[in-house]
Amino acid sequence: MKTALKQITTLMAGHPFRGSIQHASDGEVSVVQMKDVDPESGIDSTDLFKVHLTGWKNPDYLKPGDILFNGRGNRIFAVLVERDFRTTVAGPHFFIVRVQPTIVRPAYLVWYINHNQAQRYFSRHVAGTALPHINRTTLEDLPVIVPPLEVQERIVNAHVCRLKEKALLERLIEKKKQFLDALLDKTLEQYQ
């Protein structure tokens, strides 16, 4: 089945802050910002800013299964909220995507948004030149291929295996480099 993203999700804007986000060590709410996300490693919660929320808008706290969509800059991507962050909001540069889990798995949708089919769609519909961005309507109209749930799970499992393999290969390359550097250092010591 192929459908528009807006047919299978609810889309919300990140929390609207007036001005820059200022860290308050005694703040009661955490904020996920661009510096805290990466398309491969997800959300890094170690340095989330704490803030005091003011204003009229009730915060949309992040929930497990939410998707944060970064539609600004040269890297358009999505990350999955995998754990309960309790009182944490998304910064204003994100869209929060909530799926209908009986139709689409959040992890599958994150994979799909980051996959080349969706990325080609975004590159054709990007707005702006100095700071490329994807607007809400473009995101809502994203055509999504929705296979059966069991197929979605197999795709996600294959993707997770690929990421693990990549991490292992990177570690192996680093170990080989360290071994070779040590071997060459010992070789050079013979000629000092």
UniProtKB/TrEMBL annotation:
SUPFAM superfamilies, per database record: DNA methylase specificity domain
Stored InterPro entries: Restrct_endonuc_typeI_TRD (IPR000055), Restrct_endonuc_typeI_TRD_sf (IPR044946), Type-I_RS_S_subunit (IPR052021)
UniProt keyword terms in alphabetical order: DNA-binding, Restriction system
Homology family: Belongs to the type-I restriction system S methylase family.
Keyword Nuclease: no
Single Gene Ontology BP annotation: DNA restriction-modification system
Record GO terms (molecular function): DNA binding
Official protein name in the record: Type I restriction modification DNA specificity domain-containing protein
Type I restriction modification DNA specificity domain ranges (all copies): 90-156
PANTHER family in the cross-refs: TYPE I RESTRICTION ENZYME MJAVIII SPECIFICITY SUBUNIT (PTHR30408:SF12), TYPE-1 RESTRICTION ENZYME ECOKI SPECIFICITY PROTEIN (PTHR30408)
